[in-house]
């Protein structure tokens, strides 16, 4: 019988309501990983955030981050697979977001390091997120005057934030109608910042399901 592979989501699953890993969960994972269980995580979070949560826990398997946009070696942060939007699709999506009066956060791999680009913090939700990332010491943060130019990097997601649920849902519907088959779209209220609605945009290949099947193959 082949060995069994175990994966867990983080927010709303393995983590507490405050988004933390409890001491009991940490001790249990330490024991199970030490015994050689094939366990890893699949999350919408970034490598920076996941590594900050788990620290030196001995993950032997790669992790799935950004909803499957990256499959990443936990010990080194090296991306084994990158599912990016591509230049033409990325630019078209960026322009569509701007026509809706929004400014996105752009998550990318620039060939050397992960980046979290932004230009304007145009609403309270964006300011909350930037302050939270800065307080966490997130080294990905990059404020740039040429946000569209970052589409030349390997962009794995655009994230739009607004306090208006209707504006976010309208943009979600418009993008789905225009680009739907090429994308994975996630539209939701941020559970750690109520009243702050998010739309995250990924390539169609960037899904936890596809990444889990790929990890099983690897």
Notes on the protein architecture:
The chain has 218 residues and is α+β, with helices and mostly antiparallel strands. The protein has two domains: 89 residues, 3-Layer(aba) Sandwich (Rossmann fold), CATH 3.40.50.1000; 117 residues, 2-Layer Sandwich (Hypothetical Protein, Haloacid Dehalogenase-like Hydrolase, Chain: A, domain 2). The protein has seven helices and eleven strands. The strands form three sheets. A six-stranded mixed beta sheet has the order 8-7-6-9-11-10, with helices on both faces. A three-stranded antiparallel beta sheet has the order 3-4-5, covered by helices on one side. The chain has a two-stranded parallel sheet with strand order 1-2. Strand 3 and strand 4 form a beta hairpin. The mean pLDDT is 94.
The major β-sheet equals: 6 strands, mixed
**Element pattern in H and E:** EHHEHEEEHEEHEEHEEH
| Text of the CATH class of the largest domain | Alpha Beta
- Point out poorly predicted stretches: none
**Shape estimate:** globular
Can you give the helix content as a percent range? 25-40%
Total E-strand runs: 11
Number of helices: 7
Strand fraction: 15-25%
Number of domains: 2
Q: What Rg is obtained from the alpha carbons, in whole angstroms? A: 17 Å
Q: Which architecture of the largest domain would the CATH scheme give at its second level?
A: 2-Layer Sandwich
Short account of what is shown:
This protein has 218 residues and is an alpha+beta fold.
């Amino acid at each position: 019988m082949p060995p069994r592979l175990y994966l867990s989501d983080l927010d709303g699953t393995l983590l507490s309501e405050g988004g933390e890993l409890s001491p009991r969960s940490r001790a249990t994972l330490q024991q199970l990983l030490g015994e050689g269980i094939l366990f890893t995580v699949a999350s919408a979070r970034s490598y920076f955030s996941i590594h900050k949560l788990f620290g030196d826990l001995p993950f032997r398997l790669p992790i799935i981050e950004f909803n499957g946009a990256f499959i990443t070696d936990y010990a080194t942060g090296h991306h084994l697979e990158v599912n990016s939007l591509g230049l033409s699709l990325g630019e078209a999506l960026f322009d569509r977001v701007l026509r809706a009066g929004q400014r996105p956060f752009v998550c990318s791999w620039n060939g050397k390091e992960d980046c979290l680009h932004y230009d304007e913090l145009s609403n309270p939700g964006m300011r909350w997120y930037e302050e939270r990332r800065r307080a966490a010491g997130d080294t990905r943060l990059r404020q740039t005057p040429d946000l569209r130019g970052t589409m030349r990097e390997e962009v794995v997601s655009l994230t739009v934030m607004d306090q208006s649920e209707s504006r976010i849902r309208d943009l979600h519907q418009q993008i789905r109608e225009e680009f739907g088959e090429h994308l994975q779209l996630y539209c939701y209220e941020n559970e750690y910042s109520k009243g702050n609605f998010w739309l995250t945009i990924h390539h169609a290949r960037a899904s936890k399901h596809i990444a889990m099947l790929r990890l099983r193959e690897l």
